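Something for you to look into today, if you have time. I want to see for myself how the chain folds. Leave the record below and I will have a look.
***
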Amino acid sequence: MYAFEIERPTTIAAAVAALGFEGAQALGGGQTLIPSMKARLASPAVLVSLTSIPEMRGVCLSDDGMVCVGGATPHALVAVEAAQYFPALAALAGQIGDPAVRNRGTVGGSLANNDPSACYPAAALGTGAVIITDRRRIAADDFFNGMFSTALHEGEIVTEVRFPVAEKAAYVKFHQPASRFALVGVFVAKYADGVRVAVTGASEGGVFHWAEAEVALSGDFSAAALDGLKVNADGMIGDVHATPEYRAHLVKVMAKRAVAGAT
């Protein structure tokens, strides 16, 4: 590791000001950034920690029925505090990594990094969440721009994420046993105006909607409604863990399990 400075602001305004200096970078839980720095894949001169900002931590239910999660809230806290409002979201948070990762990693950091195998992008896209930053509100459908790419501007901070509570929902993933990332993960959510299905871990383009499944499930919310569908392997990730064809197969398997387990 090389020498760098660290700032620990206690307000969003102070964090924004600190990020205005050249070479500064926001630090959430550091689960991706710190290993990247150790490998010299990133070399910020100043880290601006967001974990000491009280207004960016915690889970609550808004008046319009959305689960509001502060951007600096660790996964372990979401797993506990969201359970009474949105069990599927809490269950997703409880499956991330191991206890060390869940107690350090944050919601905002996960979404801003947009790892193609991360769980939270599936929750955001699968619920039609709203990502709130220090500058604006971004619909999840407009937030993800591909592998490790989002609509965030330089220095923009994810301060809060608002998840619309579904009538029924579930997240099921096939764990990569070493990293606990999703080899394939599927979030299914049923709303009054239709069903949303988001897939992570499978595509070279990152998290995506399985549109055909959404249409089928909106007409019949049952695992059997997916029987006649097939996922194309083109553009799926192929690596030492799974071929593109196997990942395409797992998308349907995980989706059927999610629908069957949705509550």
